[in-house]
């Protein structure tokens, strides 16, 4: 146990060093200024212009807005230049409208403070639900997983802390008898950044219709709100012109996604090199489908005897898959790894984790604390280095998610009566 605590302290210090370095060297709130510009257009009744330059059919990610576009003009009016393109659903711009009432720098500082509070709240909700004490080794594991990535997200003014809080609420407020808060939180996350839609998988597999109805109703209400606030043309522009061009992913070593990795690795075997081939995207899609199929099979095997805490662990695993399987997942998105790692570390420290899982959990914690595999970006690892750099984080994330689903039941859950289904419409309490 002492050696474990020493390892966690080392991982925590490495994570803190990485996070502070990003906060100092990469500050500037660049992503927040994109949201602020879009919000200012919404506030002035120009919602259709938030995708000006992003709806050309060319992948708009990591691209600067054309200086002659309405979006760039709105940014210059706020004192922001240059500015990247806005690629989120309209709802995020709607939520950011109050910040557009303030000067850009003051709004960015307020956003920084709110995001810090959201990360703390997400951690507090998860720690309390999992039963991790603030001075425990498990809490060290949690902080080791979340701190550096949280600081990295804060340095860019990213929306990730809000998504992290919504995932935390969606996971740890779920109860079979009252699933509404969980469903609303994850529906809101879906309306902001689509990827939380994967949360429906376990509920579909286990036929939890009450949660699914609440989720679908919440999503319909949010879509209606977007149409009312922005007009149907803006939402249609996003769905028809912006979203399809992003679906293939952005091929870059620092886009830690399966699709990005396969497109980069494809360049090694393809002569002449080409990013336009459909082959790597087809392989990435196949890998994603197989991962989802394996996940459904693992959940289905256990659906009759899932305790509440085991439900939470499965949802935590799904949060990890939502990042690992997404076409675009930059470093800050991996902050949700703290949820499945939290469960795995609790099991490890309580002696409930299979021994051969232990090195995997330790290696994953170090990887997400430092992203040390970025070393493959070095020229000495060419030509496959870029692909490996992009591939390892999502691959590790998939492994961690599957381990979290397959983990031995939490010892505390053995004291809780489980639900045993007798037919599709009724369930009775049975012994664990």
Description of the molecule:
This protein has 432 residues and is mostly helical. The protein has one domain (2-430). 62% of the residues lie in helices and 2% in strands. Strands 1-2 form a two-stranded antiparallel ribbon. 48% of the residues are buried. The model is unreliable at 410-432 (pLDDT under 50).
Low-confidence stretches: 410-432
Mean pLDDT: 82
How many β-strand runs? 2
Radius of gyration equals: 22 Å
What structural class do the secondary elements suggest?
mainly alpha
- Please give the domain count: 1
Major beta-sheet overview: 2 strands, antiparallel
Fraction of residues in H or I helices: 55-70%
Helix run count: 17
How much of the residues is beta strand, in percent?
Answer: under 5%
Task: Record keyword descriptors for this entry.
globular; mainly alpha; disordered C terminus; two-stranded antiparallel ribbon; 432 residues
